[in-house]
């Protein structure tokens, strides 16, 4: 019986090749999109799920408010790990500290150590870390491997990298030096299995802190005031212990050891527990201070699922529309089958088997297309995602369930409809008299409207996202961003004398217009801030003040406008600074000139600074964030004087000047910093990186738009073919009676065009609301212009007319003799 069903299905496909092809293409696009999106979403949602008692593991994070402004830090103060011994209800407390990309030296037989530059994912940890997370040991013991100072545990991958010719046991006792910290290998572990954020591969014993002055100064294990994101603390709660119970104890510890001062009025600080399950998705705190760390966004992932659902729905709608439209062509077949004794259940199974076969073909095509799609989006799809059906049983289950779901969604209604024809009416050619016909037409029209609602929504969203990105990239941000190169001198080898020599060599390059030395560029993803207080004689105005460091050329390189006062001088270090207009207004100065000469108290804790000038506001982050109070100041500290901001002269006609300048910079770099790689970037490229997420969203929406329009037009073409075939004789009669080609085309197109216009009317308010909600994430945003809706509606209408014209014009110009020959 089943064999017979599939034989009939194949014959039907052969008879209606074009309609079958349209159905397969529509479903393949929807299913392949669903498959790729499933791989992405499943990849992110399975992060950090493999740990024992993961629901009891939390990270302690720090939260602040400064004059009502919130701030967050994924780290904790240096003294908290030791103080955790007094907190009840904690089963395991595991602190660790991420090192800032040390160079690693491995002794060799030649006497010249092998150097591995800038190694990421190196942390200080203790045995509690390995008790908390599930590592498998290949050599050494979790109980003793990190108990003593200057010990290190390596993952197998990193161990083979450092000691390629040794066995794991032979590696024990070997020396590994991290910059100036010399350690001994005490254990080898397997990297964690499954998707997780814990990609560390070098674990130096936490006890090394007390025997290393540099680490002691950096971590400050007795300090309750400062917080660094590099110092993190994970805990595992004892059974039946609540989060509130632990948080209460933590904040009592903080209050006891760092009591609030009168000057802290209006500011707050507290610890909270972040669940392990939230680690991968919380962009407020992020993951770790490592290059491999990455946060996912649940809203984006849910948005991807909606896109997959829409594309899948479009393919299913096509199938339902075309199948119900062809119903009358199979009416006699159904009537004869029923007359011969077929039951309605058998007919439903027959039609569902046809749908299942088409869906199965579409799934096979989709699996073949998926690797190609993954390559197309490789720039912003996380590494590690691939189509591995044999290695991932869950993928087989997903494809099976997807096949069944799509088969039922696409085929159930047409199967019930077709199997419901009455043999007597069918064999008398009276199927048109069946009352179902009107309902069928209404269903097809409703589904067609839904198709074009989805397609037009994608078009509108794509246009708006592109408009906002263009606005962000072309808006006057308050500074010059073109033709500026930023170079960071190496932190480990940075000295004032080397910086000066490098500066002198840069000044000798003829293509360079001006150079400034400082820290971050005016707009940067990293930031520094401090508290500051202005006393106006009546009240104390306390604010959180962003900081930018630069010399006297800093505002000139970036063309930042000086509105009042004077520019920075080297002698202004620890004495005076520039503030922006927003800061001046918060302090109560309506005219920038009034702020010049005023004194600011409690800057960086206890310093008194003078306002020497006021600059125009500029964006120091992306347009997602509002302009905040900001100070520009000079500094003699090495940390704040290692970035070179280089303004290039305009290129000559040949356009080779900048390449020559960069080549000369590299030569100078190699002379001053021979051990470090030369890296540079153009400042405007950094600005564009602020909007990577939006660029990726735009790309995805563009693809979704193209696919949705394509699927919708495929369905429209199928319906147009069905309609013209049904009205062939009517068209012939109208032509004989004098109807023109234009009149025939208009007649055939009007009904479907009305459906598209109706879809436009329905989708416009929905799209406006969705766009408005998305735009709320930007502090400065473009307008939702009326032309976005008009352009998308006109574009969809044009695409529909072009699609319809293939069939309607062909029908309109056909010789009426052919259609009326049998009459």
Automatic annotation (TrEMBL):
Pfam families: FtsX, MacB_PCD. Its main location: membrane. Residues 20-252 form the MacB-like periplasmic core domain. Keywords: Cell membrane, Membrane, Transmembrane, Transmembrane helix. Residues 306-420, 706-816 form the ABC3 transporter permease C-terminal domain. Coiled coil: none annotated. It is found in: Cell membrane. The keyword Disulfide bond does not apply. It is a multi-pass membrane protein. It comes from the Bacteria. The chain crosses the membrane at residues 21-41, 301-324, 345-374, 394-418, 447-465, 700-723, 744-764, 784-806. InterPro entries: ABC3_permease_C, MacB_PCD, Macrolide_Exporter_MacB. This is ABC-type antimicrobial peptide transport system permease subunit. It comes from Mucilaginibacter lappiensis.
């Amino acid at each position: 019986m089943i064999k017979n069903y599939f034989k009939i299905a194949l014959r039907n496909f052969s008879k209606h090749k074009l309609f079958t092809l349209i159905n397969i293409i529509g479903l393949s696009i929807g299913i392949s999109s669903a498959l790729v999106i499933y791989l992405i979403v499943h990849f992110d949602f399975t992060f950090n799920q493999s740990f024992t008692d993961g629901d009891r593991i939390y990270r302690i994070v720090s939260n602040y408010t400064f004059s009502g402004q919130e701030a967050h830090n994924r780290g904790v103060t240096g003294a908290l790990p030791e103080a955790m011994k007094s907190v009840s209800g904690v089963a395991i407390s595991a602190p660790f500290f991420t090192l800032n990309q040390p160079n690693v030296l491995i002794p060799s037989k030649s006497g010249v150590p092998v150097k591995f530059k800038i190694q990421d994912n190196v942390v200080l940890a203790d045995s509690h870390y390995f008790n908390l997370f599930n590592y498998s040991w290949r050599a050494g013991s979790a109980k003793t491997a990190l108990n003593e100072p200057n010990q290190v545990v390596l993952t197998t991958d990193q161990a083979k990298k450092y000691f390629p010719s040794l066995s794991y046991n032979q590696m024990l006792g070997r020396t590994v030096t991290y910059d100036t910290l010399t350690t001994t290998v005490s254990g080898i572990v397997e990297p964690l299995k499954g998707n997780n954020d814990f990609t560390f591969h070098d674990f130096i014993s936490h006890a090394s802190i007390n025997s290393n002055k540099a680490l002691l100064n950096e971590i400050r294990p007795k300090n309750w005031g400062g917080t660094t994101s590099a110092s993190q603390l994970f805990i595992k709660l004892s059974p039946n212990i609540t989060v509130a119970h632990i948080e209460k104890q933590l904040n009592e510890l903080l209050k006891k050891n760092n009591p609030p001062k009168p000057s802290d009025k209006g500011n707050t600080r507290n610890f909270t527990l972040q669940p392990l399950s939230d680690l991968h998705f919380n962009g407020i705190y992020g993951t770790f201070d490592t290059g491999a760390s990455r946060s996912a966004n649940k809203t984006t992932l849910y948005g991807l699922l909606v896109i997959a659902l829409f594309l899948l729905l479009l393919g299913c709608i096509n199938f339902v529309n075309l199948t119900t439209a062809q119903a009358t062509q199979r009416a006699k077949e159904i009537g004869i089958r029923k007359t011969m004794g077929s039951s309605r259940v058998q007919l439903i199974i027959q039609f569902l088997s046809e749908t299942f076969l088409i869906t199965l073909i579409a799934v096979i095509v989709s699996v073949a297309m998926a690797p190609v799609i993954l390559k197309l989006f490789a720039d912003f799809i996380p590494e590690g995602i691939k189509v591995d059906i044999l290695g991932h049983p869950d993928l087989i289950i997903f494809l099976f369930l997807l096949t069944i779901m799509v088969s039922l969604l696409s085929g159930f209604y047409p199967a019930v409809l077709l199997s419901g024809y009455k043999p007597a009416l069918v064999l008398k050619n009276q199927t048109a008299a069946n009352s179902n016909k009107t309902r069928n037409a209404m269903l097809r029209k409703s589904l067609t409207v839904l198709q074009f609602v989805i397609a037009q929504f994608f078009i509108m969203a794509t246009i708006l996202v592109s408009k906002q990105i263009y606005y962000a990239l072309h808006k006057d941000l308050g500074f010059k961003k073109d033709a500026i190169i930023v170079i960071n001198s190496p932190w480990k080898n940075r000295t004032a004398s080397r910086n000066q020599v490098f500066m002198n060599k840069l000044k000798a390059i003829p293509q360079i217009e001006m150079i400034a030395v400082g820290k971050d560029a005016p707009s940067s993803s990293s930031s520094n801030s401090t508290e500051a207080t202005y006393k106006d004689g009546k009240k104390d105005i306390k604010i959180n003040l962003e900081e930018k460091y630069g010399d006297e050329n800093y505002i000139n390189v970036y063309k930042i406008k000086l509105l009042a006062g004077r520019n920075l001088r080297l002698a202004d270090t620890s004495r005076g600074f520039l503030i922006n207009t927003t800061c001046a207004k918060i302090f109560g100065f309506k005219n920038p000139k009034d702020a010049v000469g005023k004194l600011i108290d409690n800057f960086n804790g206890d310093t008194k600074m003078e306002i020497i000038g006021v600059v125009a506001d500029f964006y120091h982050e992306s347009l997602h964030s509002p302009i905040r109070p900001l100070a520009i100041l000079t500094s003699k500290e090495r940390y704040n004087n290692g970035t070179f901001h280089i303004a290039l002269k305009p290129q000559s006609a040949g356009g080779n000047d900048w390449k020559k300048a960069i080549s000369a910079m590299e030569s100078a770099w190699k002379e001053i910093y021979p051990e470090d790689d030369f890296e540079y970037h153009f400042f405007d490229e950094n600005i564009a990186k602020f909007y990577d997420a939006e660029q990726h969203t735009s790309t995805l929406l563009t693809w979704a738009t193209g696919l949705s329009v394509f699927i919708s037009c495929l369905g429209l073409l199928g319906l147009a073919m069905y309609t013209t075939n049904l009205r062939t004789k009517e068209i012939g009669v109208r032509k004989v009676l004098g109807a023109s080609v234009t009149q025939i085309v208009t007649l055939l197109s009007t009904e479907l065009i009305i459906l598209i216009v109706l879809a436009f009317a329905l989708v416009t308010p929905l799209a406006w609301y969705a766009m408005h909600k998305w735009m709320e994430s930007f502090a400065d945003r473009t307008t939702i212009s009326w032309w976005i809706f008009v352009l998308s509606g006109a574009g969809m209408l044009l695409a529909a007319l072009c699609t319809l014209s293939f069939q309607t014009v062909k029908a309109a110009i056909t010789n009426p003799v052919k259609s009326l020959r049998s009459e």
